[in-house]
């Protein structure tokens, strides 16, 4: 049990350090406005890449789109843009994915 706790603690530290060091270092700098504007696009770019990867499936040497995921993402995107609420967006995605799974 002690060995597992040491491993988990070590993994937490190894995960924490690479994330916190740049954050602390950059937060102390006074970045130019154009860099701040550029950094604002990073979360959207990461989200877009994760979404595209969740729609696509690679099998037998080709990419296939998972139409169910795409169908559930459309109302979720609409709710996200309209309400700007993470909770409502997540709930919409869960509900539509469940309905699509049940109906197909």
Structure commentary:
The chain is mainly α and 104 residues long. The chain has a domain of 39 residues. Helix content is 79%, strand content 8%. Strands 1-2 form a two-stranded antiparallel sheet. Helix 4 runs antiparallel to helix 5. The mean pLDDT is 88.
Describe the structure using short key phrases.
104 residues, two-stranded antiparallel ribbon
Task: Tell me the structural class.
Answer: mainly alpha
Shape descriptor reads extended
The side-by-side strand order for the widest beta sheet comes to 1-2
How far apart, in Å, are the first and last alpha carbons?
45 Å
Strand-residue proportion:
5-15%
Count of β-strands? 2
How many H/I helices?
5
Order of helices and strands: HHHEEHH
Rounded mean pLDDT is 88
- Poorly predicted parts: none
Portion of residues in helices? over 70%
Round the Cα radius of gyration to an integer and report it. 20 Å
Q: How would you sum up the major sheet?
A: 2 strands, antiparallel
How would you summarize the topology of this molecule?
Layout lengths: L1 H26 L5 H7 L2 H14 E4 L2 E4 L1 H17 L2 H18 L1
Antiparallel strand pairs: 1-2
Summarize the structure.
The protein has 104 residues and is mainly α. It has five helices and two strands, in the order H-H-H-E-E-H-H.
């Amino acid at each position: 049990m002690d060995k597992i706790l040491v491993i988990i603690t070590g993994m937490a530290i190894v995960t924490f350090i690479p994330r916190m060091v740049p954050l602390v270092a950059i937060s102390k700098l006074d970045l130019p406005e154009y860099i701040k504007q550029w950094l604002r696009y990073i979360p959207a770019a990461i989200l877009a890449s994760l979404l595209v990867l969740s729609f696509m499936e690679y099998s037998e040497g080709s990419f296939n789109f998972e139409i169910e995921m795409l169908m559930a993402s459309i109302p979720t995107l609409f709710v996200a843009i309209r309400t700007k609420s993470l909770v409502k967006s997540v709930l919409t995605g869960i509900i539509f994915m469940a309905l699509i799974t049940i109906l197909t």
